[in-house]
Amino acid sequence: MRPDVLQLYRFYESPLGQVTAHLLGQQMRRFWPDVSGQHLVGIGYALPYLDTLMDVGADAYALMPAGQGVIHWPSTAGSRSALIENHHLPIADSTVDRVLLAHEIEHANRPAHLLREVWRILAPGGEVIVLVPNRRRIWSALESTPFGFGQPYSRGQLYRLMNDHMLPPDRWATALMLPPMGRLGLPRLVAWAEKPMRVLSRSMGGALLVRARKQVYGALPVGGLRRPVPAMAVPS
Predict the structure, then answer these.
(1) Residue 207's beta-bridge partner residues?
(2) What is the spatial distance between Cα 155 and Cα 63, in angstroms, rounded to a whole number?
(3) Comparing C-alpha atoms, which of 165, 164, 133, 127 is closest to residue 148?
(4) Domain boundaries in the chain?
(5) Distance in angstroms between the alpha carbons of the first and the last residue of the chain
(6) Which residues contact 144 (CB under 8 A, 6 or more apart)?
């Protein structure tokens, strides 16, 4: 079971959801300090983070899986969102600079196939950030947030999966150090406690982020690489 697009939208519109987007967005900006002019695709429900990245110049698009549903995005301009099948992305080979997987891989029936598609559409040297629930933290056990659904991952599990598909991780972080607290005023405590608790342990956060770069030498990803006829190219 995965949250539908309206559940995700309502969470990120709530005070706790806005704090969540802010804290995770900070980590993404550390991973990607300069995305100006780059083609960026968010897969899953990445809208709160794509908003931040578009504000600093990214040419961003949102692809939302059929099992989740799609909404118009961005709200102030023509639509850059599309409903897709995540095992057959409608994008030509090697045309995307950055991919953000958010609220997606933990719900994928075939995560290996999804990562093969990510590898296919990334340009040589392109990068992906994967955002998943941290297996060892309470956020993955509570269904009051989107991180309580799907298959959570430990860092070791996610590293092995990505390495198997020629996406070797080179950086990781966690965020959301305190348990999810939605009462009035408590989301501010979640934000305030983030930095001092990270000093104690960088692995404590309820959400795990891993960055990887497309590897373009050596063997093909496990299971081979499908080469479909391109359906849509990201505009240059």
Answers:
(1) 133, 175
(2) 25
(3) 133
(4) 5-213
(5) 37
(6) 180, 182
Bridge partner residues of 96 (DSSP)? 122
What average pLDDT is seen over the chain?
87
- What are the beta bridge partners of residue 133? 207
Q: Tens of pLDDT along 169-218?
A: 999 999 998 888 765 446 666 766 667 666 566 778 899 999 999 998 75
pLDDT of residue 151: 95
Residue type, 203: S
Computed over its alpha carbons, how large is the radius of gyration of the chain? 17
User: For the chain, where are the alpha helices, taking DSSP H only?
Assistant: 5-13, 15-31, 47-55, 111-121, 155-163, 186-200
Sheet holding 59-65, edge to edge: 81-84, 59-65, 39-44, 96-102, 122-133, 207-213, 169-175
Q: Give the architecture (CATH level 2) of 5-213.
A: 3-Layer(aba) Sandwich (3.40)
C-alpha neighbours within 13 Å on the C-beta side of residue 127: 15
Residues 6+ apart with CB under 8 A from 85: 65, 66
Name the nearest CA neighbour of 24 among 2, 42, 39, 1.
42
